[in-house]
Design a protein that fits this description.
Helix 4 crosses helix 14 and helix 11 crosses helix 12. The two termini are 19 Å apart. This protein has 14 helices and 11 strands. It is an alpha/beta fold and 388 residues long. A hairpin with an 8-residue loop joins strand 10 and strand 11. The longest helix is centred in the middle third of the chain and has 17 residues. The strands form 2 sheets. The chain has a 9-stranded mixed sheet, with helices on both faces. The protein has a two-stranded antiparallel sheet with strand order 5-6. It is globular, with a radius of gyration of 19 Å.
Length: 388
Amino acid sequence: MRPVAVVGTGITRFGRFPQTGLKALSRDVAAAAIADAGARAADVDSVFFANAVAGVITGQEMIRGQAALRETALAGTPIFNVENACASGSSAFHLAWLAVASGRSDCTLVVGAERLTHHDKRVPLDALARGVDLDEPRPPSSGGGSIFMELYAAKARAWMHETGVTREDLARVVVKSRMAAAVNPDAQFREPTTVEAVLGRRTVADPLTVPMCSGIGDGAAALLLCSAEKARRLGARPVWVKACEVVSAMPDPASPICAVRATRAAYERAGIGPAELHVVELHDASAPAELMHYENLGLCRRGEAGALLRSGATALGGRVPVNPGGGLLSRGHPIGATGAAQIVEIARQLRGDAGARQRPGARVGLAENNGGQIGHDAAVAVATLLAA
């Protein structure tokens, strides 16, 4: 396996853009990532296009990438469509990394794009509800409208009972997230908030209030990957892919969950441990998920997540900022784009391009991305380690 570099990034603003389709979103980020690397479309020898729910939202199936990029200079390039729930973007990155690392490709483009906005709000909720095994019995609904928030809420209640984490701690996650998003011009929710304001909002599924849940939104992100020699010829500023590991759910509930197994595998491949991380993007589809992942990723020991949050270590300016771009809670969660957006943020942090949210001296970063639900666990998880 040869070294692989991220040499270009692109991202749209995340938000609700009902008049903007996948073609426009994809075109803009693809062009931005290629230009960022000082490359041309002709340099790209393959494209991995991530999208999760266009078939439900717009009806476009089977050839989503070819349709989205048909009016660009990438038309005619081999395009591979990747659908893997909320981990679609990071799964596409994994495949692009393998293509370059194996020597099969010299320069690959990852595009993750999603449009969730729909005039009927039940349509995106129905699309998201299909990210579970439909043959499994569903938990009783509290009327919140999102099966995933019901699942997160049930996990949160049990976990909070075990660890002593409070509703105030969950609200603090949102406050931290909004503070980061306030200095990220691409984020969907940029208004700072308070613990009291978060707790005062409508309850979606106890203990989750509206701001504790990732929202509906649209957006796209892209990354250009290439070999070391190609990076040298382009004169690009490389960030190196040290590991990108994908795992799926295990049938035994006693097995370590996907996030744990993927992250451990990435640490092992890269020869890097959690104490060496300078910046982290993780899958905070709900506020308690961020705190749970502090433990899953080895950022703290069991039962210490609340204390780690309250210490300020994971906030902007802290020792290891977590979700400095705002995360899924505040940057937004257009699901096919999320995994790619996480890696864009890490790459920019390691290049020193993150502006007011920059972690000084960042040299090593981790992105952890989950997707779907099977039984007690996420259906898939992807852990990506980058180093400057």
